[in-house]
Amino acid sequence: MRPSDELFSPETIDEQIAYLASQPNPRWKAVADEGDVQDDLNVRLMHELHHLEQEDARKLVQTRARLAAAYEARSMTTQKRQGNDVSEQETMKTVAQPARRQKADRSGRKRLVRTVSLLVAIMIIGSMVAIFAWNNGHIKNSSSARPTATPAVVKKATPPGAYTILNDRTIIHIDPRQKNPVWFYDMPASESNSPMIAIDGDTVYATHEEIVYAFDATTGRTRWAQFMPDTLTGGPLVANGSVYAITTRGSLYELQPENGHILHTYTLPFTSQFSTYHDQNILYISAKAELAAIDLSNGRLQWKRQLSTNPDAAISNIQVSHGIMLLDLTTSQVPLLESMKAFDVKTGNVLWTLPAGTRVYYIAHLQNDVVYYSASDTSVLHAYNVRQQREIWQQNLTASVFEMSIVNANTLLLKLGDYVLQSDNTQVQQIKGLVTLDLQHGTIKGQYPDSQQQGDSMIGLMIWSVIIQPDGTFVYMNLSGDGAKGTLTYNFTAFSSTCKPIWRVSFQH
């Protein structure tokens, strides 16, 4: 049908015929041949309407036939399954009302969905009640634990032996069960930066130049190496479930320990070389005579203080224990040590000050509320309680104190020796022995060498720092042989808290 024919709607066929028939001169008429229609608008209208009537009748007959066939097939299927005789009349009534059947089906499905949903909700609520009851009983029957911000991560134990750095570039693992080193890693040579390490579980973290490394503590395999935007200062710090590194431009980077990815970057209040110390998730950092406390959980500055107006003064040897900080204020002028101070980290109140004498060095260590210290021009060790403002004990030693370390909760380790004047008017350290003391009373627990160990002593070249082990033992390294002839030997000796040798490993490298 042409577009103009759409004006003649089949719904108004009776009205259109009546209208045309009432015209005085109808412009339609039949012609001699059947089916031949004059090309007149009215004649075409009648022809098209007649055609539509026939087409609608044909479609109605086909629809009724299909419906009858479908109803007959449905009736036969129902009779086979259920054995019921469903009459054609009942079937026709059911088919004649499809909308009602569909509505009933939809209503049934809705009721089924609501029922299933209600059952699922009841099961979920019951499970939650059961879990709550189990947790409540479990908490009541278990010992109380301190709440933590994050779940504790189970770490693998550190392999036995010692980890240290040789020749300012080689990281090495010594195992007492083997004669040779288990593994070693040579860092690139550097004139201004030597590597520093930190051991956490089965991982050895190291910093060198602009790179933070992570090594497998058992095999020495490199797990990852993260290049940083600037040169690093100080060693890696493992705390709060992360690894931290500081750059010389004053940025603190928090790294993910599994892969070294940078998690956060914090801006520090200083931009120079740093002296740092970590205690109770707080990083204490200093540059020259300024000191600041940084919360490692969010990188925020807790406080910042200026400890000296002397432009040549610099803070060093920071130690923190039980809310007390001990540090040295050194200067390039005489006296070399301006003062040694202990103060409350929260209030900033100075608890104790030890003025320094001319060209006198102090060796000190802080444990709880007590400062253990000794001057280089004496052989006396002092124990002073800074909160009670009183001296606890003194101990007269056989030589000056060169090094002081805490081995365990009740043992203080001292390396003793004398300063020997050389021909060029310089002084060098001559190591004489090791001594361990009881922290509470100052009594000597052990010494090395004793009368029986004198011939076996290797103390003369123990100029390297002590390695404190997690099990309360400690390890010293010394050298023997002739380096010029290529016969230089590294000797590692482990001692108990009473200075008794436990094992020794010697090798050439």
Please name the defining characteristics of this protein:
509 residues, 39% strand, four-stranded antiparallel beta sheet, 4 helices, alpha+beta, PQQ_b-propeller_rpt, 20% helix
* Widest beta sheet: strand line-up: 4-5-6-7
Strand content: 35-45%
Low-confidence runs (pLDDT<50, min 5 residues)?
A: 1-8, 25-40, 84-88, 91-96, 134-152
Cα gyration radius (Å): 47 Å
How would you sum up the major sheet? 4 strands, antiparallel
Distance between the termini: 103 Å
Which overall shape is indicated by the principal axes computed on the Cα atoms? elongated
Mean pLDDT: 77
Structural class: alpha+beta
Number of strands: 31
- Total of helices: 4
* Fraction of residues in H or I helices: 10-25%
What can you tell me about this protein's structure?
The protein is 20% helix and 39% strand. By secondary structure, it is of the alpha+beta class. A 4-stranded antiparallel beta sheet has the order 4-5-6-7, with no helix packed on it. Helix 2 (41-82) crosses helix 3. It is elongated and about 140 Å long. Residues 75-86 have a biased composition (Polar residues). This is Pyrrolo-quinoline quinone repeat domain-containing protein. InterPro entries: PQQ_b-propeller_rpt (IPR018391), PQQ_rpt_dom (IPR002372), Quinoprotein_ADH-like_sf (IPR011047), WD40/YVTN_repeat-like_dom_sf (IPR015943). Residues 168-312, 341-451 form the Pyrrolo-quinoline quinone repeat domain.
What topology does this entry show?
Layout: H1 13-21, H2 41-82, H3 88-96, H4 98-141, E1 162-166, E2 170-174, E3 183-186, E4 196-200, E5 203-208, E6 211-216, E7 222-227, E8 232-239, E9 242-247, E10 251-255, E11 262-267, E12 275-279, E13 282-287, E14 290-295, E15 300-306, E16 314-321, E17 324-330, E18 337-344, E19 350-355, E20 362-367, E21 370-375, E22 380-385, E23 390-396, E24 400-408, E25 411-421, E26 427-438, E27 444-448, E28 467-468, E29 474-480, E30 489-495, E31 501-508
Antiparallel strand pairs: 1-2, 2-3, 4-5, 5-6, 6-7, 8-9, 9-10, 10-11, 12-13, 13-14, 14-15, 16-17, 17-18, 18-19, 20-21, 21-22, 22-23, 24-25, 25-26, 26-27, 28-29, 29-30, 30-31
Helix pairs in contact: 2-3
